[in-house]
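Lecture 7 notes: from sequence to structure.
We start with the chain below.
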Amino acid sequence: MTLITHIRKLVSAALLMVPMMLHAQWFGSRSDMINTLRVISNGDWERPQIIRLNSDETIEFSFDEMSHEYHRFTYHITHCDAGWKPSNLIESEYMDGFNDQPIDNWQNSLNTTFDYTHYSLTLPNDEVTLKLSGNYRLSIQEDGNEVAWFRFMTVEDMHNLQATVDGNTDIDTHKSHQQVNMTVSLNGLNVTNPDREIYTVVMQNRRLDNAVLNSKPTYNAGSRLTYEHCRDLIFPAGNEFRRFEIVNMYDYFKNVDRVSFHDPYYHADLMEDTRHHAYSFDYDHNGRYLIRYNQARDNDTEADYLFVHFSLASQQLSDGHMYVSGHFNGGNTGTKWEMEYNRQTGRYEATILLKQGAYDYQYIWVPDGETVGQTKPAEGDWYETKNEYLILLYYRQRGSRYDRLISTLSME
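Predicted structure tokens for the same chain:
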């Protein structure tokens, strides 16, 4: 089987999962030749995909097309409501400029075993400016067909949120869960019916699959909504993310057993992972990743691709599927990221094509018939885990036709 055939087989199978799993992804590819989708907010690879409205902040979207052939990609921007459905707005209401502009910033890879062309797009730009806060979907298209897509947000510069995270929850005390308590200030807002006008989203490590949507407040004090001891704001705590670094094919670092060259491509075998039976402290980045080749002048075009081999020692679990997960795949649990159980080695195994860099990852178990991933089977759940919680506050004033994103809060 050729490399291209192998990639196409993986992606075609993954696309079968799209209708069920689409809501749980930050980005996705519908083409077998597009890899390494990234969103970088205002030059900071660790920030959420959010920029402040009417500021000088920018957001960059990039991806690699796995050839040196030029493709005329265009981009289309759609404003969405708090639930990521298209808003009932026309383009001129949410953007200045025109959709379906070409992506003109592209460059071929240099001295890599895999040929690829790196494409990037920055918003706002000379052609397009965004006028409203809220959720946006960026569609990448070729000849009118979508080949990839991203989600991102613009936020108004309001400060309506306060929150804390506690390991002492209504489920257990300092064991396996974490509880988010928060308050929403309504000062500066004309709110007559909070149930209809206020919408909240709480995410753990920016995961969409287990995000808590529109939790009901415990108290309504008129100008302040209080969310305390809400059972739906209790999250399994998980464990610190596992990490590996391949920033040089000959001088690799954390959690890499060996890198070998099997003509014509590189392969990296990670150290064998085991299921965690206790909290494992590490200085992780809560799932994020960084593309980096330590001898490159331009990481985007000089970092190479290689096949990374993951293995998790475990007895075989029933009635579900194990996945490798992290920000590098946008939360996707399609077949491309699924692990297969090898009875001969007693391990879950997966081989994933990745670009050189530093990656956080974890093993997620998804029971049959469900869409929410579980950390407990492979990582365990431990209250000490340093998770990131991102809170989004939306407001739709009475009579308005769209959801404003007025405030965000990120904390550990």
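Points to note: The CA atoms of residues 200 and 386 lie 22 Å apart. The two ends are 46 Å apart (CA to CA).
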